[in-house]
Ras-domain-containing protein
Amino acid sequence: MSKQYQFKLVLLGESAVGKSSLVLRFVKDQFDDYRESTIGAAFLTQTVTLDDQSTVKFEIWDTAGQERYKSLAPMYYRNANCAVVVYDITQSASLEKARTWIRELQRQADPSIVIALCGNKTDLEARRQVSQEGGEETSAKTGEGVQDIFTAIAKKLPLTA
Ligand code: GDP
């Protein structure tokens, strides 16, 4: 019988970088140009099947990026196993914000947390402000890289017992 694992994943990053869109692409393979902003946090699940047929079920917490909800974030990352910190490749300020989130996670989250930095909106290449530098990149709009980033996280998690 294949093993089944479950992990809690939190999405963090500036408002409008595409966190909710990434989740929608990953979970439902859909994209919506006119999504309403997430208020507070939303919860969804999706499962990744690895090469050995073991499955990793992600409990995904999509947090609102607005400053007024920032104080809620620790509630979501405190017992998270993994975090996807998202920026928008067309907004260099959003990468600075992402780096701030990573520093906060390193200070405050569980030391075993797996952190992935994700540059989203690669379909807007003509407006790129952040060079690739080998980081993970996605487009929630086209789906490029989306499955890969979650699979990469699944492979970094402690799949034991
Ligand atoms: P969030 O606030 O970080 O959750 O961002 P949203 O998912 O609400 O997305 C903010 C805006 O960016 C919306 O208008 C989305 O349609 C758009 N968006 C999200 N991902 C992409 C992408 O990969 N490419 C493009 N072109 N637009 C995107």
About this structure: Helices lie at 19-28, 73-77, 92-108, 146-156. Residues 13, 15-21, 33, 35, 37-38, 65, 120-121, 123-124, 139-141 surround guanosine-5'-diphosphate (CB under 6 Å). The chain has a mean pLDDT of 91.
